[in-house]
Amino acid sequence: MAKAKELKYGLMDIPLSCSVFLEPALNKYIRSIEPVSRETKKFVHEWNLALVDILKTSQYSAHLGDMGRKILSRTLQSDMFPAKCVESAKSVPLHSLHYAIRFSESMRFLASKIASNPNIKFVDFGCGFSPLAPVVQSEYNIDNAYCIDDKPEIIEVYSRASEKVSGRAPRSISWAEAKSMATSKNLDTIVAMGVLPYIALDDQVSRLKFINTNFPNFMIEIKYNNNAETAGENVFDLTRLQKLRLSVENTQTLETTMIQNSLRYLHKFMCAMPGKRYFLANDRSLFLSR
Asked: What's the CA gap between 196 and 206, in Å, rounded?
């Protein structure tokens, strides 16, 4: 039996898949996620059109691997390709559900903060190609919208897509700049979805402590596993999580909102995909918020 060819991944493959598969996932799982407005869905659609149009140029081909080139070429051939993948492609339905939950919960969180303070100063930490900050900036006319990604090539495409869709882009800053701005009260809100699990655990703890001390509002995803023996390298187990709880202020708020957010996530996930209970025994997402 011929051995399956091992895919080579490029810098932009995963960010591209997250964005392209988000759009059909918002439709497929509409009954299982937080409501997303028609305007937001339209923005996401236009965002993906702009993203694909930008990435098809030769200057970005070196940053696309096997998966990225396949997604790009097939989407250019048929705008139904992403939806077909979300329906039946291996692992895509599972991952795209997670993209939809992340995005809709982040939109819900930011909308609630803007409702109480229209002048929030927020940053999307680990933005990738997510349209989250651009759509919030556009829909709510936010002046102080920022993004962080440590890959300048990602930020270049992200900013071009945002300019193309809405005429402006969130300002790109570094984590060091974000820390300085937060301590001087020039940032008050942070969303970090899908980024901390790629960071060493000690560094995650350090950043979580800083965020808890300096950001009044936050929505953060971490990975958790009940079983310390099977937990990934950058994944919290119960002991690590208990140490984190004990080492930060506002412990009660962190614990109660983590439980509430996680139950919401699990409920939405299981309602949308009841046959996928195996993930409960592996690394899964927990959401910390305030």
From this structure: 11
* pLDDT, mean of residues 164-184: 98
Query: Token pair for residue 261?
Result: 């957010």
225-273 tens-digit pLDDT: 877 788 888 998 878 877 776 555 554 455 455 556 665 666 566 666 6
Q: Give the count of alpha carbons within 13 A of 114, CB side only.
A: 19
User: Is the pTM higher than 0.85?
Assistant: yes
Query: In this structure, are residues 81 and 74 in contact, taking their beta carbons and an 8 Å threshold?
Result: yes
What tokens does 51 get?
């993203």
Beta-carbon contacts of residue 67 (< 8 Å; ≥ 6 apart): 7, 9, 10, 13, 17
What is the spatial distance between Cα 87 and Cα 213, in angstroms, rounded to a whole number? Answer: 42
Listed in order, strand segments (DSSP E) in 101-255 are 122-125, 145-148, 171-172, 189-192, 217-224
